[in-house]
Design brief:
Helix content: 55-70%
CATH architecture of the largest domain: 3-Layer(aba) Sandwich
Oligomer: single chain
Number of strands: 5
Order of helices and strands: EHEHHEHHHHEHEHHHHHH
CATH superfamily of the largest domain: HUPs
Bound molecules: adenosine-5'-diphosphate, tryptophan
CATH topology of the largest domain: Rossmann fold
Strand content: 5-15%
Structural class: mainly alpha
Radius of gyration: 21 Å
Shape: globular
Distance between the termini: 31 Å
Number of helices: 14
CATH class of the largest domain: Alpha Beta
Largest sheet: 3 strands, parallel
Number of domains: 2
Length: 321
């Protein structure tokens, strides 16, 4: 059976870009093997310095993931910090990681370009991510496109260790969904919490409607034909609608006679309906006070059992025992 592993940072509220880019593919993979999904709270410290907010986000990500269909009977859900051995492995891996490799990481360069402080944690972030992956002997790692380079770095580090110390690590394979392109935000740029252009999965109805109605469009009048290929509305609608419904919206764009406001309403109704069963599940989970803690404790137990074995192998291989 293959082992599937992925992580998500609790650095904010989950949005539909996260859902289609990472969560849905990860949830679908639950059927294909033994899945381990964790909440990357060590990683979140590189950008979040508010302890109360970090704690709240962690709970919320766990709740949202479970509401969206993570099945704890099959899949282990746990906190990164419940397996502190990853920080030890990070140190060991960092001793074979060329600084020049980390200097080329897009994610690091982008974050610094956007004004984040270039702290050592942000710089070595991919090494911690490599440890997250290698400590579970992971086969497949579902991630969004922007994380692909981090998987390549992981493979390089594992290869380097294997060259020096013999066969220590399994080489993991990244899996990005070819069908899920980057989900655009309200302004047409990549949807991201740092751009303030998100549609949250579990936003409140009034607020979500307002946000959908604020999607940026050109100023074509109601009567004019509109280009569906240039429209954020159509791109977002395509995530939720059937082929037939999508073709129908595209036709109405090209024909003219419908204003953007009406298309936005249609999009809102569709997305609200799409997440309805998950909202219901979310309410049920919230009523059971100990459910999330129990799931996380169970997940941590399973994750630790594997991490302990792999770390024993690593320590022995490098000469730390
Ligand atoms: P954000 O950009 O909001 O900070 P993260 O960087 O925390 O989101 O991303 C978490 C996961 O969600 C990653 O696997 C990432 O690839 C995926 N993801 C984030 N935004 C999008 C998007 N707009 N389209 C597709 N996938 C996305
Ligand atoms: N860096 C990932 C992100 O920002 C989160 C992450 C941390 C991760 N460790 C991981 C993803 C290990 C996959 C595997 O989205």
């Amino acid at each position: 059976m293959i082992r599937i592993l992925s992580g998500i940072q609790p650095s904010g509220v989950l949005h539909i870009g996260n859902y289609f880019g990472m969560m849905r593919p990860a949830l679908q993979l639950q059927d294909e093997g033994e899945a381990f999904y964790f909440i990357a709270n060590y990683h979140a410290l590189t950008s979040l310095r508010d302890p109360a907010l970090l704690r709240e986000n962690v709970r919320r990500v766990a709740l949202d993931f479970l509401a969206c269909g993570l099945d704890p009977k099959r899949t282990a859900l746990f906190l990164q910090t419940d397996v502190p051995q990853v920080t030890e492995l990070t140190w060991i891996l960092s001793t074979v990681t060329p600084v020049s490799r980390l200097e080329l990481a897009h994610s690091y360069k982008d974050k610094v370009a956007r004004g984040m402080a270039a702290n050592a944690g942000l710089f070595t972030y991919p090494v911690l991510m490599a440890a997250d992956i290698l400590i579970y002997d992971s086969d497949v790692v579902p991630v969004g496109k922007d994380q692909k380079q981090h998987i390549e770095i992981t493979r390089d580090i594992a290869t380097r260790i294997n060259e020096i110390y013999g066969d220590v690590f399994k080489l993991p394979e990244g899996r990005t969904q070819a069908t899920t392109e980057v989900v655009p935000g309200l302004d047409g740029q990549k949807m991201s919490k740092s751009y303030g252009n998100t549609i949250d999965i579990f936003g409140e109805e009034k607020e979500l409607r307002k946000r959908v109605m604020s999607i940026v469009t050109d100023s074509a009048p109601v009567d004019a034909p509109k280009d569906p290929d240039k429209s954020t509305i159509v791109q977002l609608y395509s995530l939720f609608a059937s082929k037939h419904e999508l073709a129908e919206m595209r036709e109405r764009f090209e024909k003219g006679g419908t204003g953007y406001g009406d298309f936005k309403k249609q999009l809102f109704e569709k997305l609200w309906e799409y997440f309805a069963p998950m909202r219901k599940r979310r309410e049920e989970i919230q009523r059971d006070k100990s459910y999330i803690d129990d799931v996380l404790a169970q997940g941590a137990k399973r994750a630790n059992a594997i991490a302990d074995q792999v770390m024993a192998r690593v320590r022995k291989a490098v000469g730390l025992t």
